[in-house]
Amino acid sequence: MSLIAGTTQSLTVTREVSPYGYFLTDGESDVLMHYTELVGSKPRIGAEVEAFLFYDSEDRLAATMKKPLLQLGGLARLAVADVHPRLGCFLEMGLGRQLLLPLSELPESIDYRPLPGDEVFVVMQHDKSGRLVAKLAFEEELAKLVFHAPQSWNNQWVEGWVTKTLQMGSFVIVDGGVVGFGAYGLIPSSERTKPLRLGERVRARVTYIREDGRVNLSMAQRKEVGRLEDADRILAFIKERPGGGMPYSDETEADLIKQRFGISKSAFKRALGKLMREGLVTQKGSWTYLVKLEEEEAGQPSAPPGGGEGQ
């Protein structure tokens, strides 16, 4: 047997060396288990202990009786503890120390990279120097754990974790709850209301269940529900504007609408159309105005056309 970082092994306590700790052996090699790595009472010499092997801050092989959240070759969802702009993300692994997810594993776009508190699915492996690092878990690792989404999920709101995020969309593992690990999902870019980070927690609506058991998702409400909410939000926005008008209309570019209201241009036009049919707003060129305000102004005989001089 050899002592391999990232594995839990049954080792024999050979001796105590104060003020450091205990030396453990597999019969061929020894490794130090510091006093701070003990769990429970102090072991006796000759006792067998289950110890996890890792490299300490000085790159020396060490042992701990603490239980890690992940072992070599295993898969787990780990929380991001810290982010380093040149190294990558440091993940909590349950030992009071972190596991590095290298920068090379992260999305090229900074907007898509995890932040502290996000949680990513990773596999533990060795780097070229033999140190423990994390690698993002992709489809080949996750496929054996996910299940086919049930038809009862259709049009239901679900939650999950972003496992991969690209310009074309974001891939998600939808929570399985008591059913199991989870199901694959995809939020197309057109159905995102904002950029999604790798490891971000997201709530979305199941729009379609595919034959292979995967689901298409949307962060937006159904059109009929979304139209009401969008219309209310747009109306409130206009009412808060000085003069009761906004520089947005059917002529406004989609990117500007997305940036201001977080919805697509088609959703914006649907909501605006509802407000116009109800007689609440009207459009003039590239601007949209409250109809009520215009009627009040029109009913003031002392006001000259164009709102020029005195009352």
Compact summary:
The protein has 311 residues and is of the alpha+beta class.
Explain this structure.
Belongs to the CvfB family. The chain is an alpha+beta fold and 311 residues long. It has 4 domains: 8-64, Nucleic acid-binding proteins (OB fold (Dihydrolipoamide Acetyltransferase, E2P), Beta Barrel); 75-137, Beta Barrel (OB fold (Dihydrolipoamide Acetyltransferase, E2P)), CATH 2.40.50.140; 148-218, OB fold (Dihydrolipoamide Acetyltransferase, E2P) (Beta Barrel), CATH 2.40.50; 223-298, Orthogonal Bundle (Arc Repressor Mutant, subunit A). 16% of the residues lie in helices and 36% in strands. It contains 5 helices and 18 strands. The longest helix has 18 residues, at 223-240. The chain starts with 7 loop residues before the first strand and ends in a 13-residue tail after the last helix.
Key terms for this structure?
311 residues, alpha+beta, OB fold (Dihydrolipoamide Acetyltransferase, E2P), five-stranded antiparallel β-sheet, 5 helices, disordered C terminus, CvfB_S1_2nd, RNA-binding protein, NA-bd_OB-fold, CvfB_fam
